[in-house]
């Protein structure tokens, strides 16, 4: 005779619930609800992730745009206020892209003097009792042939602006035959000067510059050579080196002037 199986009241209740159709339907609904809920959560995460990437992309574009604006702003030049007495326009400044001796033209970025630098002792007007006589060098700078006349030294610097020494040398003699000094240069017509210096290029601008410079040079009011029209760092340094003897107070940017400056440095013990 088979023994009757004894079932725990807990499992007996679970067995009844499992066999109940309503309970089975409820379980199926719960499972379906879980699937839907999981799907909704996954969809919500995808939507949030997409929104995040969209916001990040917009923010990146905004940051890049801001950086570009800042870069443009920094590139803008800030005008400095200087005394009208020393103020000069850009076209009046001497561009330091010259070659004083022989060889090919080398273009360099213009080096402008500040208002304080223009008033330097090195660029003061030559006094009548100044007996400085620069020695001859082996470099053959064009200025060395005209050290007795500071006006000619400065005119040569103007001609060497964006010009090779070979080209400038071809017109110097004719120019100084036409204009031997500042007074004559201020009186002759610009057209006559243009005909002589035409091979150098920019002849109209150069002719006007030479005439205006010569007129100002004859005046007694200027105290520094940098106050004269068309005189920038290159011409001012040449004036200090060849005309006033204050070569040790300047440091030229032009390579040929630097050669001569180094030459003076090596013989400084023999200079007066």
Sequence-ordered SSE layout with sheet pairings:
Layout: H1 9-19, H2 21-75, H3 115-118, H4 150-159, H5 165-178, H6 182-187, H7 190-197, H8 203-217, H9 233-244, H10 255-266
Helix pairs in contact: 4-8, 4-9, 5-7, 7-8
Descriptive overview:
The structure is a single chain. With 272 residues, the chain is mainly alpha-helical. Among the domains are: 26-68; 126-270, Endonuclease III, domain 1. It is built from 10 helices and no strands. It has helices at residues 9-19, 21-75, 115-118, 150-159, 165-178, 182-187, 190-197, 203-217, 233-244, 255-266. α4 runs antiparallel to α9 (233-244). It is elongated. It starts with 8 loop residues before the first helix and ends in a 6-residue tail after the last helix. The model is unreliable at 78-106 (pLDDT under 50). Keywords: Nucleus. This is HhH-GPD domain-containing protein. It is found in: Nucleus. Its main location: nucleus.
